Amino acid sequence: MKRSIVLLAVAAAFGLTACTSTPTPDATPTTTTSDPTTAATVVTEVVTATVTKEAPPPAKPVMDSFGYGPLKLGMTLQQALDTKLIGPAKPGNPADLCTLHDLLGTGQSVYVSKKIGVANIYFTAAMTSDGVGVGGTEAALKAKYSNLVERHGGDSWTVPAPGNPTAWFDFSGNPQDTLDGALLRHVDQDCHS
């Protein structure tokens, strides 16, 4: 009787093993022949590749009624420096009220007042979405702003910055109908007359 139980237990163990084991894959290639003289081998391979998309370049800042991209009128000196758009204060300029900085990569400048922060941003036509700025034409300026106020005998103009009650645009021209000065200024700027 004991022997029957042992045999039954061994048989059950073998049966259970046969039901739960994972079959070993056959590593030999499969050969298919339709012609006994020719043999074809099928090989399957999986390749995984990682593709990294490069980040797009930062958008070029654009001049508007509030500033140049992330550089805004009224920012403190440290906030303006943190935009990475202005350089350190230019030497040789009196710094008791304001500091003068290069607007990096543009050939233009920025005044930062100790009292009100970013006070003036000078700009070219290339820095705007409408082509109005230094290098642009007087005709383009007059087409853009119908509410220009003429100053200094007709060779300079000022206009409220659209949508920003604390700013004005100032422009100056020359006899060739080209603008040679353009700036966005805070109405309370104290950096120049």
E-strand count: 12
Q: What is the count of DSSP helices, taking H or I runs of 4+ residues?
A: 3
Broad shape = elongated
The level of helicity is 10-25%
Mean pLDDT: 83
Written as H for each helix and E for each strand, in order along the chain, the element string is HEEEEHEEEEHEEEE
Low-confidence parts, pLDDT < 50 over ≥5 residues?
A: 4-19
Kindly describe this structure.
By secondary structure, the chain is α+β, with helices and mostly antiparallel strands. It has a domain at 67-186. It contains 3 helices and 12 strands; from the N terminus they run αββββαββββαββββ. The protein has an 8-stranded antiparallel β-sheet. A hairpin with a 3-residue loop joins strand 7 and strand 8.
